[in-house]
Amino acid sequence: MIREGRLHRPTSGIAPHFVQANLAILPRDVAFEFLLFCQRNPKPCPVIEVIDAGQVEAALTAPGSDIRTDLSLYRVFKNGELADEPDNLEAHWRDDLVSFLLGCSYSFEYALIANGIDLPHYGTDRNVSMFITNIETTPAGPFSGPMVVSHRWIPQDKVVRAVQATSRFPDTHGAPIHIGNPEAIGIADISTPDLGEIWEPASPDDVPVFWACGVTPQTVAMESKPELMITHSPGHMFITDLNDEDLAVL
Amino acid sequence: MIREGRLHRPTSGIAPHFVQANLAILPRDVAFEFLLFCQRNPKPCPVIEVIDAGQVEAALTAPGSDIRTDLSLYRVFKNGELADEPDNLEAHWRDDLVSFLLGCSYSFEYALIANGIDLPHYGTDRNVSMFITNIETTPAGPFSGPMVVSHRWIPQDKVVRAVQATSRFPDTHGAPIHIGNPEAIGIADISTPDLGEIWEPASPDDVPVFWACGVTPQTVAMESKPELMITHSPGHMFITDLNDEDLAVL
Hints:
Chain A is of the alpha+beta class. In chain A, 15% of the residues lie in helices and 28% in strands.
């Protein structure tokens, strides 16, 4: 449906329990360093699949797919500046492009919900809060910079369960990065997110919990001002054939 | 001690609970494809650290180390043929070499022992049985071929525990690849291993259990006959500063 232009909207809530992925497309000449950056920073940058230079099919996780047409909205950046926001990549495709599919939070969010933890944004078109932290990623080649985290309010009596439930999914950001004290990771004011939306706690006992965020690799790559970089448009993810449980380690 | 030539022996049983690693060194021009091969085959090829081209220090997992001197025995292959087995790499080092440290079985073997599962070879200089299976790895660039597995006899009433205990360590091969039926993975005769040693079951109730083996990436890389490839000599591993538990996902 996305390929035929019949589904032109964010993918949250679509095809529940199938793994969705962030997209980052870069030229082959920086692909090794970018893959190395992901290997060194697996919590913000879990690699679901890498599509070889010039190939367009995610053969391992979505056979029959075409990365140029199977997302409903893309962003094209040239030298770090947004240059286009097209419905498909026909005008931009080159044979030296390597496509990285990176884990996104939808799988682990479902794990939280399955464990009785309410997430008010889940399945809506609203977004979580995201913050740029003082936690430095481990650099690789031209790629370096601070980790971005997503924030969720978790009821105090569910914090342990939230750690357990998300630890099972290291390929979709895994266990939290931090629990409880935003200032400890460089967040001065929990009510002014750097990205996404503001969320109030549902109860005064709710605890702020932070997970590594898939925005990190995009931010870091963009900082290096690559000649060309293509990503999904926020919320318009690539949908794989994997089930969430396929990614569980235990 | 290894660097000074004062410890010239296999590293099994040395520095217990510190993570040891397989070594594979390849020229930069095949490094992306090799890293991609590891990403696509994480059970046989778990990446602990990648040392950038021309660098010699495992800065993340063993600060102060020198990959050219800190293993006690190396193997140097040229075009897929063993060319040298030196104590250090001074005669072979080049600035375009990328070093891959890959997880080895020692960490998960300790997890088995800690769970009351006896491994008769553990801490001795004897080796497990290894088999070339009919399970194909997922190719990347020039790298492809069958998965090699290691074999251990596990008491029937400990098989579930063995799965649980090793699942915690995906970076040291993780959960078993197969339980119970060697023929199902292309092993015709359990008493004739392709590599390593023959082991008899301690009891007729023992179950054959198979884990993905770190010999796989070496075998696969060698098959592609790279102009230069350097590995550790069997049993002479690289010792990191990580503790086994640092690698546990849960």
